[in-house]
């Protein structure tokens, strides 16, 4: 332990980082860089390795191989206390036997700050988070939202190089979660501290992140700004995971008739945009191959008259959400969800025609689920 | 009482009364015999209620035989045993609760610790006697309060490990991990976070160890001579010529009173410690 991380606001870099638990490969050669002041969201289903990655960065989990750098310093062998990171736990992990004030003061006390400077800093953070009236209370006497603030405060008071947040909002009720999400975003941009935020909630990822990194089974799938990932998912997993509901996939085969590219399934076919032709031909598995046509629910339109750009469908169920209606359809035995106007409430079994907006659609290779277009 | 019949109510209380009688009668008999005169003690049939109240028996044991010295020995032994057993046992339990050793060693260790209690004490006491009778590093532990305390600690460490393991397991790992990230060392996190949270359990366990050491007979009998503890002194009233019933009873009362008072004072902790434990929220 020669050097500790001193920087107050730092970059983070994972280089070929792997973690195995026994025979289980939890994180597989993770390569990821987080810029100074950036908020990066690690997103994925449970068990995808996102929390393990965060814990390796915090020093709570040893890395099996690879290198982790914080502010340029290799921290592989540094204990958590020398990494200058602060963490907000899903359970908040407040110290139950200490008052809110003592909870906030703890990281400063441990670091041997003089008492005279601890008080003002604790009060400053408490007023920033509007918990100044709770300082004498014990964690048990606080509501969920208040505990969350204290946990956040304990991280902020340190002025660490990096914030680590492990699903900090998942124990809050829906309304409070949305509210706190906004607060968190604002706070992070005000403080400008590099933040790594783990969640399985795609809405949190979309709203909070400067960039999102999506993981699955220990493998990083895609990294980028949320909007870019939403519009250009690298594979079907990412496309399904982002968006609520996720992207629809209609299985079919590619045909090239008369120089024009077509998609067909069970006797129904769609003309694909001509500009897709070259991209499809460049793809390794060339036509006619099995593909998935990927289209987001908001890009499916209902049409009155059948035409060559539409498909027949049957309403399976429609769910009125108030501001909109989600219509679950069956298209040739395949599921398709469409986002429709709130006034559109078709009965179960109604036969309709739907037109996917092909300019916003994607093609995925059925063999490896990668995006072709 | 909602929904209970009158007969049920009476029956329950009758049952309680019988149980109480069975439990408390020996205590009453001990106390009443301790203040009977020698003549009354040998009366046939025995008197249920004391006829001639006397403190002669207490004078015999407290003044003539100076039982206070034995009480002091007992306190020294109990304190030694409690300190050693709780410190060593709780550290072991903490380790076992936090680290998973390979090859299911956690379970093996826990089981091994328990085997100490599986031998009849009369089996282990002889080797310990031989060991204590030797001078090791210039120290001979035989007939010392510290030695007996150490032996008692050896007997009670399994108890401490098993009870404390439950408490440590209930403390979320997040809390000490938060402390580690906040800047603490492992030992610091243990001292500043885990120990205060486990305090009720630790108190309850310490009390149990103290009481068990105070009452222990066999090891005290074999491992001490001049530095005898109270149970041995009480048993000493049974001589090869005579059984001094009055002294026996007075000594028994004198030995039991501190424990009873102590238990009454701390029962709050024992019950809270052994039932609650939780640090949720």
Offer a few descriptive terms.
heterodimer, A: about 375 residues, alpha+beta, 6-stranded mixed β-sheet, 5-stranded antiparallel β-sheet, 9 helices, 20 strands, about 25% helix, elongated, B: about 280 residues, mainly alpha, 12 helices, about 75% helix, globular, disordered C terminus
Overview of the molecule:
The complex is a heterodimer of chains A (373) and B (281). By secondary structure, chain A is of the alpha+beta class. Chain A is built from nine helices and 20 strands. In chain A, the strands form four sheets. Chain A has a six-stranded mixed sheet, sandwiched between helices. In chain A, strands 13-12-11-14-20 form a five-stranded antiparallel sheet. In chain A, a hairpin with a 2-residue loop joins strand 4 (65-70) and strand 5. Chain B is mainly α. Helix content of chain B is 73%, strand content 0%. In chain B, helix 1 (6-34) crosses helix 12 and helix 8 (173-182) crosses helix 9. The radius of gyration of chain B is 24 Å and the shape is globular. In chain B, 36% of the residues are buried. Residues 277-281 of chain B have low confidence and may be disordered. The chains are: A alpha+beta (373), B mainly alpha (281). Chain A binds chain B through residues 58-60, 79-81, 83, 85-87, 89-91, 93-97, 106-107, 110-111, 139-140, 154, 158, 164, and chain B through 172, 174-175, 177-185, 188, 193, 196-197, 279, 281.
Distance between the termini of chain A: 49 Å
Structural class determined from secondary elements of chain A = alpha+beta
Low-confidence stretches of chain A: none
Proportion of residues in helical segments of chain A: 10-25%
| Integer average pLDDT of chain A | 91
- Helix coverage percent of residues of chain B? over 70%
Q: How many extended strands of chain A?
A: 20
Q: What is the general shape of chain B?
A: globular
- Give the largest interface pair and sizes: A-B, 27 and 18 residues
Question: What structural class is derived from the secondary structure elements of chain B?
Answer: mainly alpha
Rg of chain A, Å, rounded: 25 Å
Strand order of the largest sheet of chain A: 6-7-8-3-9-10
């Amino acid at each position: 332990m020669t050097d500790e991380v001193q920087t107050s606001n730092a970059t983070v870099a994972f280089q070929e980082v792997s973690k195995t638990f026994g025979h289980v490969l939890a994180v597989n050669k993770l390569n990821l860089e987080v810029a100074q002041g950036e908020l990066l969201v690690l997103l994925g289903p449970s068990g995808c390795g996102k929390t393990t990655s965060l814990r390796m960065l915090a020093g709570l989990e040893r890395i099996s191989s690879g290198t982790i750098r914080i502010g340029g310093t290799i921290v592989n062998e540094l204990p958590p206390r020398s990494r200058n990171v602060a963490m907000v736990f899903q359970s908040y992990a407040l110290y139950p036997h200490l008052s809110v004030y003592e909870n906030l003061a703890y990281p400063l006390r441990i670091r041997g700050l003089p008492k005279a400077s601890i008080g003002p800093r604790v009060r400053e953070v408490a007023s920033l988070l509007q918990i100044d009236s709770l300082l004498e209370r014990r964690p048990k006497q606080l509501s969920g939202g208040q505990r969350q603030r204290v946990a956040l405060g304990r991280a902020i008071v340190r002025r660490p190089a990096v914030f680590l947040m492990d699903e900090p909002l998942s124990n809050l009720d829906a309304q409070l979660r949305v509210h706190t999400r906004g607060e968190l975003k604002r706070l992070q941009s005000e403080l400008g501290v590099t933040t790594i935020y783990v969640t399985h909630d795609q809405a949190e990822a979309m709203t909070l992140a400067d960039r999102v990194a999506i993981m699955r089974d220990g493998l990083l799938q895609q990294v980028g700004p949320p909007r870019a990932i939403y519009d250009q998912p690298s594979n079907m997993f990412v496309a399904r995971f982002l968006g609520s509901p996720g992207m629809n996939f209609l299985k079919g085969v590619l045909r090239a008739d008369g120089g024009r590219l077509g998609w067909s399934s069970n006797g129904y076919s769609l003309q694909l945009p001509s500009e897709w032709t070259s991209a499809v031909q460049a793809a390794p598995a060339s036509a006619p191959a099995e593909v998935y046509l990927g289209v987001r629910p908001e890009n499916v339109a209902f049409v009155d008259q059948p035409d060559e750009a539409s498909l027949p469908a049957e309403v399976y169920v429609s769910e009125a959400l108030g501001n909109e209606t989600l219509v679950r359809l069956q298209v040739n035995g395949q599921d398709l969800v469409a986002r429709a106007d709130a006034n559109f409430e078709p009965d179960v079994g109604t036969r309709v025609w739907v037109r996917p907006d092909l300019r916003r659609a994607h093609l995925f290779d059925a063999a490896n689920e990668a995006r072709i277009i | 009482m909602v929904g209970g019949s009158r007969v049920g109510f009476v029956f329950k209380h009758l049952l309680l009364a019988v149980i109480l009688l069975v439990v408390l009668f020996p205590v009453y008999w001990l106390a009443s015999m301790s203040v009977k005169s020698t003549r009354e003690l040998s009366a046939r049939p025995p008197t249920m209620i004391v006829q001639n109240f006397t403190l002669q028996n207490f004078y015999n044991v407290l003044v003539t035989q100076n039982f206070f010295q034995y009480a002091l020995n007992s306190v020294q032994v109990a304190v030694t045993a409690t300190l050693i057993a709780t410190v060593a046992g709780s550290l072991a339990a903490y380790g076992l609760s936090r680290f998973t050793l390979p090859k299911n060693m956690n379970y093996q260790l826990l089981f091994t610790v328990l085997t100490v209690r599986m031998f009849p004490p009369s089996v282990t006491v002889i080797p310990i006697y031989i060991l204590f009778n030797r001078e090791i590093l210039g120290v001979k532990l035989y007939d010392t309060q510290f030695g007996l305390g150490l032996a008692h600690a050896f007997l009670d460490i399994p108890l401490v490990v098993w009870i404390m393991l439950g408490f440590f397991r209930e403390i979320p790992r997040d809390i000490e991990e938060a402390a580690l990230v906040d800047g603490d060392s492992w030992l610091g996190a243990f001292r500043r976070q885990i120990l205060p949270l486990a305090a009720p359990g630790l108190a309850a366990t310490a009390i149990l160890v103290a009481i068990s050491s105070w009452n222990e007979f066999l090891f005290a009998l074999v491992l001490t001579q001049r530095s005898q503890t109270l149970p041995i002194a009480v048993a000493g009233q049974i001589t090869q010529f005579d059984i001094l019933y009055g002294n026996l009873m007075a000594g028994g009362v004198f030995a039991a009173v501190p424990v009873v008072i102590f238990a009454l004072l701390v029962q709050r902790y024992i019950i809270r410690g052994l039932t609650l434990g939780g640090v949720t929220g």
